[in-house]
Each structure stands twice: as structure tokens, then as C-alpha cells.
Amino acid sequence: MTRSSVRLKDIADKTGFSVNTVSLALRGSPRIPEETRQLIRTIAEALNYLPNHIAQSLVSRETKTIGLILTDITNPTLMRTAQAIELELADRGYGTLFATSNNDPEEEIRALEMFRSRQVDGMLIYPRSHRKLDHIRKIRQSNYPIVLLVGDPDSGIDAVCVDERCGAYKATRHLIDTGHRRIGIIDSANPLGNLEKSEGYLQALSEAGITFEPVLTADPQGHSVMKGYWAMDQLMSTANRPTGVFAANDSLAIGALRWCQKNGVNVPKDVAIIGFDNIEFAEHAATPISSVNYAVDIVTELAVERLMRLVAAKDALPDPRVTMIEPDLVIRESTTGRS
């Protein structure tokens, strides 16, 4: 008998109990004695029985699955968060379906449609753009549980996220406080309208009375180590080089550090570098890199908790709520010890 053909009736015939008794036993109902439950579970396992979740979902209106959409599967922070989310949902009895938009708006829409067609109970999303959210907002307005993992307080969609503007401000302020006045930024988010980090950078410069110089900005057109390497090459090719650099993620910062090593530039004596996300590789780089900490555990716990509240609310979702987590700096050798 194949796994797909095993029915409750087959287990009932094998055990001598009714189909109803078998169904209750496999659901762990206290109405069935433990000894009977154990016997039925043993026979079900021997027959390779798998419950029909599709049939169950038609009754309960729940599939016990959550969709998770990432922008980039190679991003270390997104993968750490995805793993934490999967474990958190598993503890609550939910499975996780993954999709990646690859920073493509059409792929993001396809992922949304795919998850809805599979009737997942809710979605957690890293949106490609933090501002262009009409396609997601429309789904939320139809009482569909969605929580964003990057937040805009005015989006009309629930979100739990690290305050990127605050983190970038703190990183830039740290460079200023350690004596830097010419501070460069490596950030590829502006074309997508994801301005939080550049806004934090500009705010810190303004408050310190430092004039913003466009020549000290580099768009790496990506998020990888190699993109950071060539962006650093651009910044350090200016006539008056920066003495400090803020990179929008740690992979870019590692690339910037590698450029310095290849070109005889001492970090932090000649140029200080600070990144964002606090990934493991930043701590163990040849010169450990200072970074803005992305609190994976806190984001995961709060985002899943909020989504579960929305799922439980059924068709009467509460008003959207955005939770912004203030990040801390992790200071390492890449920004200290300058003489």
C-alpha cells in the first residue's frame, strides 16, 4: 500500500476501531484512552499514513503554513533571520514556505500571488522597496495577515524591524566622535527608494556642522563583498580621500576593508570603516569591523508574535502597528585605535 493511498478507513480496518475513533486518536483527543491512541498511532506509522492537510484546511480554514519572502537569498542577515523565523514558527506548529524576489518587483508580486494561491495563513515579507508598497497594502486591506520586516510608519501595513535610520545615524556619529570630518558612504539602496540609512548618515553630518559632499557617496549597485571593494576604490580615488566610511551592510564593509589591505591603506589609522548588521564575518575579519547590530532574535520573536495575532483575528484585523527596534553599535578595531 503506497503512502498516498492510505486512508483513515485503512487504519480503522486494521485496528478494528471506527473511522471516527481513529481520527480522534490521531488528533490526540483526550476522549480516546491513551492505550488506544498509542495502538492507532503505531498502526498508522506502520502503514506510512500521512494526514491530509488539504482536507483538514478546508474544515479549519487554516493550512498551518506561513509564507516568507526574502529579497536576496545570499544576504547573510536575511538567511539568519529566515532560519530563526522557521524555528519560531515550527515551535508554534507552523511550516514555512520560502520565496525570493531577487529585488525584482515582478518576482515579488509573483511570490505574493503564489503564496495566496496556496492559502498560507499569513506572510512575512522583506519588501524590495520600503516605499512602493501599494501591491502589498492592497492585500492587507483585504484582511490578509501580513507583517513586513522593514518598516515605514505610514505604510498602513504591520511591521517589525530594526530602525535603520537610527542605526546609520549612530554609525556616522561614532565616526564623527572619533575625529572624522570627511566621511564616505557606500549604499546601494537609494534607487529603490530605501533612504533610511542615507537619511541617518546625512542627519549626523548636519548635526555636526559637516557639509555633505556628493563625491563621498558610492553606489555599489549590489550588496556583495566585491561590490564593496569597487565602491571603496571609487571613494578612495577622489582627490581628498575620506578618513571614515560607513557601509550599508557588513559584506560591503568587508569589501572596503579588502581594498584597503590590497592597496596598503591602514585601517583604522588611514581610514576607519563601520558596517551594518553585525554578521559573524565582520567580527572575524582580518581587522574586526565595527557594525550596527541587527537584533535577529528580537525581530523574529516580535514579528512572529504579531503575525500570530493577525492570524488569530481572522477577518477582523486590528489597525496596523509598526514596531521599530533601536539598534546598538558593536565597536571593534576598524574604528578604534586611530593615532
UniProtKB/TrEMBL annotation:
Keywords: DNA-binding, Plasmid, Transcription, Transcription regulation. InterPro entries: HTH_LacI (IPR000843), LacI/GalR-like_sensor (IPR046335), Lambda_DNA-bd_dom_sf (IPR010982), Peripla_BP_I (IPR028082). The keyword Methyltransferase does not apply. It comes from the Bacteria. One of its GO terms (molecular function) is DNA binding. Residues 6-60 form the HTH lacI-type domain. PANTHER family: HTH-TYPE TRANSCRIPTIONAL REGULATOR GALS, LACI-RELATED TRANSCRIPTIONAL REPRESSOR. This is LacI family DNA-binding transcriptional regulator.
